[in-house]
Design goal:
This protein is an alpha+beta fold. The protein has 3 domains: 4-88 and 130-162 and 269-339 and 425-447, Nucleotidyltransferase, domain 5 (2-Layer Sandwich), CATH 3.30.420; 164-267, DNA Binding (I), subunit A, CATH 1.10.30; 364-418, no CATH class. Helix content is 30%, strand content 24%. It contains 13 helices and 20 strands. It has helices at residues 19-27, 89-105, 130-149, 164-168, 175-179, 185-194, 233-239, 244-247, 252-261, 267-284, 295-305, 311-316, 437-447, and strands at 4-7, 13-17, 31-35, 40-43, 54-59, 64-73, 76-86, 154-160, 209-213, 228-232, 290-294, 334-338, 364-365, 368-369, 373-378, 385-392, 398-401, 404-408, 412-416, 421-425. Strands 11-8-5-6-7-12-20 form a 7-stranded mixed beta sheet. Strand 1 (4-7) and strand 2 (13-17) form a beta hairpin. Helix 6 crosses helix 11.
């Protein structure tokens, strides 16, 4: 179960507490609800308290970034809060493409024409496309928010998903890396991501996968990653040292897919690698001790402890301190989805590009903005009852709360302002069938 964030009377961060303790403080009048997501209480009497070492650990990804807060208790390192941060970089790329198409379309129509800007523009050093910059911004926003609620002492981040130099030349940093326990984890994780974590030949998922040479070594095949794929045990045994063209002669579509994807770049991995320096710079700007680790180290820690694959679990297992970290059985992460803050479009257009509605006069109606979380208590009528959810405002004063339409604004009470993100509860760690919690607890009892 996730801990509840606590801030003092002066809004200084204190140690997160158990939900039962938070409930006791709220019912006793010693605390008030400060924020719903993440759930935070503010003390009405106490200003400060004792703290323990707390680490902010993150696993930045192209589509989802895992976040875990790990505290150092007497029994060892324990995850007290976790979240999965879903980015909207792909939607931003699509929106930019749509805008580009609309602007180019004006050249063929007798509508307002926007003159091109000067062509001698230069990009600043460290420039990132908006789709990648939004990912970096999301991490910066949430680290800043958590830092205002939790007394963090250090930051650990996975900024290099795959060490491509070590994959091409494993001895580039010394033979001790190749001969150590981490040998092969960089290549395995890269191949699993590239081939979708399923057998390249039969498509089976959730089965043990083995590294397979597309061109067998006995026929001149190399160990470069462009000649490697993943296959289940049965397919690997059937193929043996046969030529892939002979092995898949009855599956031409699969053969074409493997040959075309063998040297294809991993787009999501390229996005992570392109933004890793910007992420590192952002993390360092907060003034806390920061350490950076690779994806091979993360997977090694996770598999050794028997935890299932998930972004927030990967975040908990980042770095040297992730070798022995306890994840409570009932831990359920908060799923945070970047939704943006609306659109700059003033009115809708018809199929010919002309305005079909009037321009909006005001974004705020009665103190509410579309996207705010509100509670509406309607005393009578067809909509009688308590409604809670995000509000869609209208100038008429008739709002939509959640899925219920036609609620007057005079019944609405603000719970949390719209902040550009949507929230929901995720699945617990014990949901995968392969996760053996008793085995993990015994492992931690021995090593802590």
């Amino acid at each position: 179960m996730q801990r509840v964030f606590v801030i003092g009377k002066n809004r200084n961060p204190l140690m997160p507490c158990h939900p039962a303790r938070a409930r006791e403080l709220l019912t006793g009048g010693k605390a008030k609800v400060f924020r719903l997501f993440p759930f935070t209480i503010i003390l009405t009497e106490r200003k400060d308290g004792d703290t323990q070492p707390v680490s902010f650990k993150t696993d930045p990804g192209s589509r989802t970034t895992g976040i875990a807060i790990v505290a150092e208790f007497g029994r060892g390192r324990t995850v007290i809060w976790a979240a999965g941060l879903n980015h909207r970089g792909h939607n931003i790329g699509k929106s930019l493409s749509d805008r580009r198409a609309v602007r180019r379309g004006r050249r063929k129509r007798k509508t307002r024409y926007r003159k091109p800007r000067l062509l001698n523009r230069r990009r600043a050093e460290g420039w990132l496309p908006p789709s990648l910059l939004s990912r970096v911004g999301n991490i910066r926003v949430w680290l800043g928010r958590i830092l205002s609620f939790v007394p963090l002492t250090e930051i650990e981040a996975e900024t290099v998903r795959f060490d491509t130099q070590k994959m091409q030349n494993p001895e580039i940093s010394g033979t001790e890396y190749r001969q150590g326990e981490l040998s092969g984890y960089e290549v395995r994780e890269y191949l699993l991501e590239k081939w979708g974590r399923k057998c390249a030949y039969c498509g089976k998922e959730n089965v043990p996968l083995e590294i397979e040479h597309i061109i067998p070594e006995s026929k001149g095949g190399s160990d470069r990653v462009s000649n490697l794929t993943v296959a289940c045990e049965n397919c690997n045994r059937k193929k043996g040292n046969r030529d892939i063209g002979d092995f898949l002669k009855r599956k031409p579509d699969v053969l074409r897919k493997i040959l075309s994807g063998a040297k294809a770049p991993l787009r999501d991995t390229a996005a992570v690698n392109a933004a890793r320096y910007a992420v590192g710079k952002i993390l360092k700007s907060f003034g806390l001790p920061v350490s950076f680790w690779s994806g091979g180290r993360t997977k090694y820690n996770r598999t050794k402890q028997g935890y299932p694959k998930d972004h927030w679990i990967d975040a908990a297992c980042v770095g040297e301190s992730g070798r022995y970290v306890l994840i409570p059985e009932d831990m359920k992460p908060l799923i945070i989805t970047a939704a943006g803050r609306g659109s700059r479009q003033m009115c809708r257009m018809d199929r010919y590009g002309f305005p079909s509605t009037a321009a909006k006069k005001s974004k705020t109606v009665g103190g509410f903005v579309t996207g705010d979380i509100v509670r509406a208590v309607v005393p009578k009528g067809k909509k009688a009852g308590t409604h809670r959810g995000r509000v869609a405002v209208r100038l008429s004063g008739s709002f939509r709360v959640g899925k219920t339409d036609g609620i007057s604004r005079k019944y609405c009470e603000l719970l949390q302002r719209s902040d550009g993100y949507e929230y929901k509860k995720g699945d617990g760690v014990s949901s995968p069938a392969s996760f053996n919690l008793k085995k993990c607890r015994s492992l931690h009892a021995v090593n802590f």
